[in-house]
Amino acid sequence: MAIATRRLLALLLLAGSCALGAGAAQAHPHVWITATSELIYAPDGSITGVRHAWTFDDMFSTYALQGIETKTKGVYSREELSSLAQTNVESLKEFAYFTYAKADGRKEKFQEPVDYFLEYKDTALTLHFTLPLKTPVKPKELALEVFDPSYFIDFQLDDKDPIKLVGAPAACQLKIQRPNDGTANAQKLSEQNFMSGDNSNYGAMFANKVTVDCP
Amino acid sequence: MRLTSGFAGALTIGVAAAVVLLALDSAVHVLMAQNPFGGPRPSAEPQVGGIVGWLLSKQSEFYREMSSTIRAAKSDGSAVWALLVISFAYGIFHAAGPGHGKAVISSYLVANQETARRGIVLSFASALMQSLVAVVIVGICALLLNATARTMCGAEKVIEIVSYALIAAFGARLVWTKGGGFIRALQAPPPLPAMALAAAAPHDQGIHGHDHPHEHSPAHAHVAHHGREHRHDDHGHDHDHVHDEHCGHSHGPVPRELAGPGGWRRGFGTIFAVGLRPCSGAILVLVFALAQGMFWAGIAATLVMGLGTAITVATIAVLAVSAKDLARRLSGAREGGGALIMRGLEFGAAGLVLLLGVGLLFGYIAAERVTCL
Question: Which residue, A164, A184, A181, A152, is CA-closest to A57?
């Protein structure tokens, strides 16, 4: 009886964790973005915004281009893609542009994107857009994260020069943490967290974190 | 006995397929890595520990290999086989993630005292429907209307909401029915030990007649249910009344009301509610295949993906049913309260379906939501 009960408990636990864990579990990415970003500085050394260039994976690029009219098959001009770019930035608003900035630990807000356009090259779409900060900041430390909390989209910083500082004071130092280089261990989610369903910010462990220190 | 071996056979095939796939995974992986169609492997995988991280990285790999394989299949027909293998593997791994109605189907089975066999049928039917819905959406929107991704995604969103609402409604109905049984079990005076036995464990035996010898193995418990279903199928609706006369016990008539022909109709409801919502991944693959002029390959990939999904969902569903069967036998052996425990379990499972539906509908459960960019 004791053995049977234990077996039952084990089975129930297994079934339960499968059903619940699966029910509450998070998505895996369907879209991959290779990102490069620029931090834009005003002449006085304050940060005014972020300029992103996000390249979508082959499959999603093709999907996004579905139904877009073009003069030459397979060639998409910036003008032909303008309405799609518009849709993209409008949709991104709901997700806070997947861009999270903290100036000296304080969350910063962004305005609506400007200068946005799409580019099609080598079967991949690249979305360019600039996010101006609501108010320019001049922090000692700026932390910028790019990720999708629900991990529907996987953001990877480009291999070379993913982050550029445009017009930054010479003393500023840039540090980049990629989700996979071991520096983001603190954000590693344990199995327990996952099973307990506390995964509202699941995508955070795949976040790309950039910090800029300006003494 | 024939039925037992049939069921056991189906289960064995399903589980064996999953196990073999897991075992061969590394081999497949090496194959894909060397395969000219395999494309470059992701340079880095997220560092998530344990089974979950492993599942995530596996399905991501398979998924990413799909686009390059479809491209390759344009010029080299043999790449289609690679595509099917990848799609199947992706389906198996992917279904372990959110969505695909694992939780809903499993809870439904537990709430309704369903058989593992029916669980397998439901899993496969809903996975097939998911695949077909994806094909129909892309077929109509992209192929016929040449609609934009935005339009298609909008359609997906609407379907998603309908599906979640249906699951919630379905759960509400289950809670309503199961609540009655639970309350009756609560109100019933604690039965004598002998009564408890009569009420819980052998009531299958009493109902299904003497077609099968009664044995204490999980497989036979399924068979017992199975036999009952068929009797219902044969005899039609009026059978319920007969049962009510026969079994006016404290454990209530609920389980028998839900199995039988009406149960199949409800089962269809589950298939519909769960299967209505297509997988975003399948839609992406189909549109991509269409753009490459390989729509048929996309359809094949989607169907094979659905097969893989069904195997995972069915495995989990069978696990849930087995756990409940074990619970029934144990609680049946316990003094008093056995029926109460079972009705409570069913009520809880019904509640879970409702919670899942409501949670998905209002976004409390971050499922694989449709993200339109």
Answer: A152
Rounded Cα gap, residues B115 and B310, in angstroms: 16
Half-sphere exposure of A199 (CA within 13 A, CB side): 32
Per the structure, the complete domain to which residue B131 belongs is given by 101-361
Question: If we measure between CA atoms, which residue out of A61, A29, A36 comes closest to residue A129?
Answer: A36
| B86 residue type, one letter | I
CB contact under 8 A, A22 and B327: no
The CATH number given to A26-213 is 2.70.170
Each residue of B251-305: pLDDT tens digit?
A: 333 334 444 445 667 778 888 888 888 888 888 899 999 988 889 999 999 999 9
Q: Tell me the C-alpha distance between A38 and B60, whole Å.
A: 28
- Partner residues linked to A183 by β-bridges: none
The answer to whether A87 contacts chain B (CB < 8 Å) is: yes
> Among B299, B300, B301, B319, which Cα is nearest to B311's?
B319
Residue of chain A whose Cα is closest to the Cα of B69: A59
Alpha carbons B85 and B87: distance in angstroms, whole number: 5
At which residue do the structure tokens 């910010």 appear? A201
Per-residue CA distances from B28 to B85, B264, B357 (Å)? 9, 39, 37
Between B222 and B293, the more confident residue is: B293
Phi, psi of B335 (to 5 degrees): -75, 130
pLDDT at position A129 is 95
Residue-range domain boundaries for chain A:
26-213
Query: In the prediction, which pLDDT does B299 show?
Result: 94
Q: Is the pLDDT of residue B346 over 80?
A: yes
- With a CB-CB cutoff of 8 Å, which residues 132-171 of chain A face chain B? 150, 152-154, 156, 159
Say if B63 falls within a structural domain.
no
Establish if B9 belongs to a structural domain.
no
Would you say residue B161 lies in a domain? Answer: yes
For B277, which DSSP code? S
- Chain A hits for B327, Cβ within 8 Å: 8, 12
- State pTM to two decimals: 0.68
Q: What is the pLDDT of residues A125-181, one digit of tens each?
A: 999 999 999 999 989 899 999 988 877 888 888 888 889 899 888 888 888 887 765
In a domain? residue B5: no
Of B367, B368, B43, B358, nearest to B171 by C-alpha is B358
- Asked if residue B225 has pLDDT above 70, the reply is no
**CA A13, A18, A20, A21 torsion-angle sign:** positive
- What is the 3 state secondary structure string of A152-181? CEEEEECCCCCEEEECCCCCCEEEEECCCC
Please compute the mean of the pLDDT values over residues B119-142 and round it to a whole number. 90
Q: Tell me how many domains chain B contains.
A: 1
CA-CA distance, B41 to B180, in Å (whole number)?
55
Q: Do B147 and A179 touch (CB under 8 A)?
A: no
CA A146, CA A109: separation in Å to the nearest integer? Answer: 14
